[in-house]
From TrEMBL:
This is DNA-(apurinic or apyrimidinic site) lyase. InterPro entries: FPG_cat (IPR012319), FPG_N (IPR035937), H2TH_FPG (IPR015886), Ribosomal_uS13-like_H2TH (IPR010979), Znf_DNA_glyclase/AP_lyase (IPR000214), Znf_FPG/IleRS (IPR010663). The lineage of its organism: Bacteria, Bacillati, Actinomycetota, Actinomycetes, Micrococcales. Its EC number is 4.2.99.18. It catalyses: 2'-deoxyribonucleotide-(2'-deoxyribose 5'-phosphate)-2'-deoxyribonucleotide-DNA = a 3'-end 2'-deoxyribonucleotide-(2,3-dehydro-2,3-deoxyribose 5'-phosphate)-DNA + a 5'-end 5'-phospho-2'-deoxyribonucleoside-DNA + H(+). The keyword Hydrolase applies. CDD domains: AcNei1_N. GO terms for biological process: base-excision repair; response to oxidative stress. One of its GO terms (molecular function) is oxidized purine nucleobase lesion DNA N-glycosylase activity. Its cofactor is Zn(2+). Residues 293-327 form the FPG-type domain.
Amino acid sequence: MPEGHSVHRIARQFARNFVGKRIRLSSPQGRFVDGAARLDGHSMTDARAVGKQMFLEFDNGLWLRVHLGLYGAWDFAGDIQVDATVASANGRMGQTGMRGTGDAVLDSAGENSVRSIGAPRLTRLRMAEAEKVSVEPDGFPPDPIGQVRVRLLADDVVADLRGPTACEVLGPDQVEVAMNRLGPDPMLDDGAAAEERFVSAVRKKPTPIGRLLMDQSVVSGIGNVYRAELLFRAGINPYAPGKSLRDEQARALWRDWAHLLKIGVSTGQMMTMDDLGDEDYVLAMRNRADRHWVYKREGLPCRICGTHITLEEMAARKLYWCPRCQS
């Protein structure tokens, strides 16, 4: 499932390329005809991400809410301009600060792609790479490919949505309710009030912290990858009840989430390892297996203590952790 950094990048692409333009909406798949008709021909006025959900506002006061879920993705074509704040991985972000490393590094799975963002993108990019063909379509707008739930078309850019968990038109009051149900998102507010909201929610619950970090009403945007990596970086057992965490532990989790999320939005990749040398950093940016501490490393030795990384199940999702470093 795309995590918070991906959805923020999508929202910024919409803000840069679609906001202020008259948009034609259609549903090539046929499952969103009525919803598309309510927005068709109106200008987009805002694009916002809150955690894993995105909200697009139009000049008739209606909003399009999209939750990609496990299988959703946006495909972009045309004269797509990357937002200046997330333009490339030409800076190195981490606990040691930022320093330049040259051009953007596209990883082997296309994780920082600006043309296709979401769950299915990996298969398409790998197919294109294997066949040695361009992923750019001929002509504009390109024909819809596959089951496109909704197409947003401007004069020079187009976005196709496929496979979302949610795609609906909401009024202003409904949008406010939907946003208020979500936990704090440090890309929107990393101030003291947001931190306090997170800490209070965690420390009053007996629920394991590994579950709480995935609860979007507690904190927005964290998925399976960031959950595993945050807990390892903090040395916290994923089964520890939230209320058992010390105040400073909960605050450190929130601040580390803000830190990693900003890196993810800037680079397009879930880089969770700090203090890498230049060669190791480039390798990690190119290969997902080299930029995580525990995620998808089951059976391999912990990078710190050598204990084999454990794979278990928590709330029907895979849980990766080190039984020694996180004891």
